[in-house]
Write a structure and sequence with these properties.
Layout: H1 9-34, H2 49-56, E1 65-67, H3 73-78, H4 83-91, H5 124-137, E2 144-149, H6 156-167, E3 172-178, E4 181-182, E5 185-186, H7 187-190, E6 206-211, H8 215-230, E7 235-240, H9 258-265, H10 269-279, H11 285-308
Parallel strand pairs: 1-2, 2-3, 3-7, 6-7
Antiparallel strand pairs: 4-5
Length: 323
């Protein structure tokens, strides 16, 4: 059982702050999408914030790496990418982290070791494995956290990557964010097993299933997984979580009941963690309100920055191409 007294109060506040920032940033993005200021797809992470924040808070982004899928806003913010550049990317502006060319699914920042944002299901898993090989080859002191959904765990790229990662003993922690639905399909309809963490045994590595709605449980499990990965054995974590919104903004979510959705909203990772911190006198209600106001302002300022940023020049069509 987690004892909150074992954690530094500054860490606890930072975990809460980052989750709120992700929530407010995405609410502002959803609002802009509704006003048709953002085009293309928009996959919101609302409800899953504890996974990205709890895990990435273990990293030193000067030497560690993150690779994520198309639902990548939360991971990018948790990794310390600039909210202005992320919002501008959603708006398709030149000031975006991918020069406005990638949009929601393709956040990227080489300098900050954030390798996506990948629009193809499971495509980031071999990318993360390759980064792990680079770390080991160059004898660096780093680790890679690789995120993917329950829909990607049945892809061949997942199995091929874990096999190679163990053969080469790469410092990679594979994190399955099981939010119950691969687009609109309940994961239990397409999977022979309910506990994905046991797949680790097939590749002679450790695996663990954690409550992805509990930021401290994710933090502790990832810390342990990183230690194992850095010692020479890759690790598979499954975080059981839940998205409060549809698969993307175009998804009304009719494949699940209102009762189920309401049940998980009662487990909101931000509300439950806030109440825990207040109960143990780490913060007050006023502290939370101030924190929330700060995050709302950052999101609002990011939207303003994006709206006022210029469109990419037409010549940008021919830059950054690899052919």
């Amino acid at each position: 059982m987690i004892n909150i007294k074992n954690y530094d109060s500054n860490l606890l506040k930072e975990l809460l702050y980052k989750m709120i920032l992700i929530r407010r940033f995405e609410e502002k993005a959803a609002q802009a999408y509704g006003l048709k200021k953002i085009g293309g797809f928009l996959h919101l992470y609302i409800g899953e914030e504890a996974v990205a924040v709890g895990s990435i808070s273990n990293l030193d982004m000067t030497k560690d790496y993150v690779a994520a899928a198309y639902r990548d806003h939360g991971h990018a913010l948790a990794a310390g990418l600039d909210p202005n550049s992320l919002m501008a990317e959603l708006y398709g502006k030149i000031t975006g982290c991918s020069k406005g060319k990638g949009g929601s699914m393709h956040f990227f920042d080489y300098e900050k070791h954030f390798f996506g944002g990948n629009g193809i299901v499971g495509a980031q898993i071999p990318v993360a494995t390759g980064i792990g090989l680079k770390i080991k080859y160059n004898e660096e002191d780093g680790v890679v956290l690789c995120y993917f959904g329950d829909g990607a765990i049945h892809q061949g790229s997942f199995h091929e990557s874990l096999n190679l990662a163990k053969i080469w003993n790469l410092p990679v922690v594979y994190i399955c964010e099981n939010n119950h639905y691969g687009m609109g399909t309940d994961f239990r309809r397409v999977s022979a097993i309910d506990d994905f963490s046991i797949m680790a045994e097939s590749y002679a590595m450790k695996g663990k299933q954690v409550n992805g709605m509990d930021v401290l449980e994710v933090y502790d499990a990832t810390k342990e997984a990183i230690e194992v990965a850095k010692s020479g054995t890759p690790y598979l974590l499954e975080a059981k979580t839940y998205r409060f919104k549809g698969h993307s903004m175009s998804d009304p979510g009719k494949y699940r009941t209102k009762e189920e959705l309401e049940l998980y909203k009662q487990k909101d990772p931000i509300v439950s963690f806030k109440e825990l911190l207040i109960e143990h006198n780490v913060i007050t209600e006023d502290d939370y309100i101030e924190m929330d106001k700060r995050c709302k302002k950052i999101a609002k300022d990011a939207a303003k920055f994006a709206e006022e940023s210029p469109e990419p020049d037409l010549n940008e069509l021919y830059t950054d191409l690899y052919v």
